[in-house]
Write a structure and sequence with these properties.
- By secondary structure, the protein is mainly α.
- It has a domain of about 50 residues.
- The chain is built from 4 helices and no strands.
- The termini are far apart.
- It holds the Pfam family HA.
- InterPro entries: Helicase_assoc (IPR005114).
């Protein structure tokens, strides 16, 4: 039996910060650098809009309006803390300065 009437299942293919984090844990998984940069810049622009509206970068998790933004900020705070401890170097100093998370 097939589907009738043109019914389709809608699938959301956007990457959440959690999905990205899980993919990054896969050994030998390589991101296309341009995709990662585009995603970061998109979230950064959303953060600037949030800051303009609320006067700060304290995005709640969960943030119902844009859940990915809350996860973006949370993830960056974790990465910043790890960078300060010398655990990783995934965030550049420029990214830290731009987001105001540091």
């Amino acid at each position: 039996m097939g589907m009738s009437g043109g019914s389709r299942i809608k699938v959301d293919y956007r990457f959440t910060e959690e999905r990205i984090h899980l993919l990054q844990k896969i050994p030998n998984f390589i991101w296309q650098e341009s995709w990662t940069l585009i995603l970061w810049e998109t979230r950064f622009e959303e953060l600037l809009e949030y800051k303009e509206t609320f006067g700060n970068c304290n995005v709640p998790v969960p943030y119902k309006i844009r859940p990915e933004l809350g996860e973006f900020v949370r993830t960056h705070r974790v990465l910043y803390g790890q960078k300060k401890k010398g655990i990783n170097d995934l965030l550049s100093d420029e990214q830290i300065d731009q987001t105001g998370i540091g």
